[in-house]
Structure formats: C-alpha cells, structure tokens
Amino acid sequence: MSTINAPFNSRRSFLQTMAAVGVGTAATRLTAQEKIILAPPEEQAVDLTLPEPVKRKLGWAIVGLGKLAIEEILPAFAESKYSKPTALVSGHPDKAGKIADYYGIGQEHIYNYDNYDKLANDETVDVIYIVLPNSMHAEFTIRGLKAGKHVFCEKPMAGNVDECEQMIKASQETGKKLGIAYRLHYEPMNMKVMQLCKEKAFGDIKLFSSSNCQDVKAPNIRLSKELDGGPLGDIGIYSINAARYCIGQEPTEVFATAYHGDDVRFREVPQSVAYTMKYPGDVLASCECSFSTTESRRFRVVGTEGFVEMDPSFSYRGLKLFSQNAEKQLIQHSLPQVDHFASEMDDFSQCVLQNRETKTPGEMGLLDAKIIAALQKSIESGRAETV
Ligand code: NAD
Fold first, then answer.
1. Is 234's C-beta closer than 6 angstroms to any atom of ligand 1?
2. Catalytic residue among 238, 245, 275, 279, which?
3. Catalytic annotation on 238?
4. With a 6 A CB cut-off, is 24 part of the ligand 1 pocket?
5. From ligand 1's centre to the CA of 382, what distance in Å?
C-alpha cells in the first residue's frame, strides 16, 4: 500500500486520490458507501424490542422468623424482581402478626408448625423458604414438597446424609423443585472466582485454604447438638463448598481435629475445627472454622501460575477479590455488590417460572453432607477417613 501524504479536504477528494493511487476496488466500495444515507430518522429501522416485562412475581412463604429471616431475607424482597413474601410460618403468632402487617401480608396467610400443611391450599404461595434450625430442615422441606410447593432450604441442607437423601426423594416423587440456599453461587465476586478457576487462569490449582470463624454467644441454635448445630455445618460448610467451586472436584479423603475446651458454651458442639481435604491431582485443602473467635472469613486458591484470594469472602456484604497473575501483578477486581438473598431467591423463582434446574440443587447439599459426615467421623476416630 502506498503512503499518502496529501491532506484530504473532502471525502470526495479522498476517494479520487485513492482511485489515482490504484486502490480501485476500495474506491468502488467507498463510492457505493457514499450513497448510503447516514442519519435521517425516517431512514432508520424502527426496533421496538423491549425488555421482557415481569409478568408475575412468585409468592414465597418464609418458615421460621429468626435472625436471618428478619434481618436479611424479608428485607431482600425489596430488591427482588421475581419474588414477593406472601405467607409466614412461625411458632410466635404475635411476632408473625407484626411482621405480616409490616410487609403487607394478610393475617390469613400466617401459619404455625402444626397447620403448616394447609399451605397446600394457599394459592398465593409458590415457594416455601425453610429458615429453621438445621434439625428441622428435612421435616419441613418434605412436608412443604408434599403440600405441592417448591422448596428453597437454608444450608446446611440437613443434619445428616440420610435426611438429605429423603429430601431429594420427596422432590423427585412430588415433581417439585428443591434448591439449597448457597447464596454465594449467586454473588458476582464468588462467581468470578468460579469462572477464573474453571478457565485455569492460575494454572493448575494445587492448594486451597480457608477460614470461616465468628463468636457465637449463648443462647443460640448453633450451640445445640439436638438442633444439629456446630461449626462444621454452620460455617465450615462455606469452605467445603468454596473448595468444590474452586478446585472443581470432590475430596477423596479428609482429616479433622476439634476442640471443645472448658467454655460451657461448647459442651455439646466443638468450638473450633481444623480440617484438611485431599483431592485427585495432588490438590490439598486446609480449612478452619470456629465459634469462639473474632470474624475471619476468607479463602485463597493457589495454582501453578498465580493465586486468587477473597477476604472477606463469605460475608453478606463488603466482599473483596484479589488475584495475582503469572507476571506477579496483583489485581483487585471491582465488581457490583448485590443483595445475596434477593439474587438467590430471584434465580430460584426464575427456575420455577422457566422450569429449569437450579444451580444449587439438593444434590449439592447432599455432597456437602457426605463430606461433613466424613469429617465428623475423622474427629471421632482420630484418623483420616474416606468420603
Ligand atoms: P435463629 O435462631 O435466629 O432462628 C431460628 C428460628 O427457628 C427462630 O425463629 C425460632 O423461633 C425457630 N424455631 C422453631 N423451632 C425451634 C426450636 N425447636 N428451637 C429453636 N428455634 C426454633 O437462627 P438463624 O440464624 O436465623 O438460622 C436459621 C437457619 O438459617 C439455619 O439453618 C442457619 O444455618 C441458616 N443461616 C444461613 C445463613 C446464610 O448466610 N445463608 C446465615 C445465617 C443462618
């Protein structure tokens, strides 16, 4: 291609010059382009494609009006596009009555644990959200599915593997959807980590380390063995689940050790658990969870060519994501902060509306329950256990 020095004072002179230097085909094409009218509105195609309107918000019944339901889940409906609260289930009628008034839920849509099954006849309810102590998840999930409703259940899915399997069976038999509230699967930064790890942005992943700790004061459902409390199911599960979405595999062998200590709070459940998990391909995870420390909620994934870290990683808000690439550049990723509960509820509502599978089904809760069972067995045996 020749170098053209002369300035072009018009499009026409540019085309003439191009023709003179022998760019015949380009000149022909540009002459044709010259005939195209660029801007008049009457020449522009009319595109009336509008975003799909939200036809119907699904009605959600909230079961168990404790701290999480009152402080996070119910307020999250203000951010929801596809979900609204339409019923409450509680053992405390006064509390339920006040909350119902506040959220514009009719008093006739308040239930207790005995008449819960009458939800079957409540046409305002599409989905039941179980926010009860862990030991009650299986019973109320199964009753909810049998009442003909889809069920979204808080983590941990249940107190043991057998209950998880019964919940999955009830979902299959009733044909109603079962989702587990793993909110971080609907949160942009954790989703970015999942994507980067899957794309091998850090080479082959070799190590995962994670801490999820907090101070739990009595009384609290987390301190009760009967209610299936304890740090592994309550907060350790976040590290177990994150290890899966970073490493992309299931552990084959685990080892755990725990302290109860002298603190009376921990006479039924351990105060701290330290645990390791072995994965195929020489991948190791080392994790800790505690009910007797300040808040610590972070994980780091180390690969052959870089690492990614979130600190905090498991909190409701204020998450931070960093990564280091093969050139050893440290990057802080800036992504939108969303309401985790609005995000997970809207996704589940859309699964129901579009009849698609949830990203966090009962099967995921069952996998975590199997790992927790192996970790508990290891605490008792003092040896590594297979999953
Ligand atoms: P909470 O103790 O504040 O609430 C539990 C509710 O269950 C209360 O309303 C209580 O009245 C009711 N309840 C019914 N029967 C009970 C019984 N026999 N004993 C005690 N309470 C009984 O607990 P929470 O912190 O709201 O946790 C509820 C569930 O939510 C748990 O499964 C927990 O693991 C889960 N959770 C999840 C997240 C998350 O980020 N996804 C965060 C916190 C809690």
1. yes
2. 238
3. yes
4. no
5. 31
Which of 63, 67, 68 gets mutated to test ligand 1 (max ligand atoms within 8 A of its CB)?
Answer: 68
Inform me whether the pLDDT recorded for 195 exceeds 80: yes
Q: What angle do CA 244, 248, 254 make, to 5 degrees?
A: 50
* Secondary structure letter of residue 315 according to DSSP: S
CATH fold of the domain at 188-337+357-386: Dihydrodipicolinate Reductase; domain 2 (3.30.360)
* Residue the block writes with tokens 């509680």: 90
Give the pLDDT confidence of 358-383 residue by residue, as tens digits. 999 999 999 999 999 999 999 999 99
Residue 155 annotated as catalytic = yes
* Ligand 1 center to 130 CA (angstroms): 9
Where in the chain do CATH 3.40.50.720 domains reside? 58-183
Backbone angles phi, psi at 262, to 5 degrees: -90, -15
Distance 299 CA to ligand 1 centre (A): 25
Evaluate whether 366 touches 168 at the Cβ level (below 8 Å). yes
- Tell me the pLDDT tens digit for each residue of 261-312: 999 999 999 999 999 999 999 999 999 999 999 999 999 999 999 999 999 9
Q: Which atom of ligand 1 is nearest to the CA of 156?
A: 34
Fold classification of 58-183 (topology level): Rossmann fold (3.40.50)
Cβ distance 127 to 352 under 8 Å?
Answer: yes
Q: Which of 84, 155, 176, 177 is catalytic?
A: 155
Structure tokens at 378: 């290891």
Report how far apart, in Å, the C-alpha atoms of 42 and of each of 36, 49, 371 are: 13, 18, 65
User: Where are the domain boundaries for CATH 3.30.360.10 in the chain?
Assistant: 188-337+357-386
Q: What is the pLDDT of residue 32?
A: 64
CA of 67 to the centre of ligand 1 (A): 7
Residue 344, ligand 1, Cβ within 6 A? no
**Listed residue (44, 11, 73) closest to 340, CA to CA:** 73
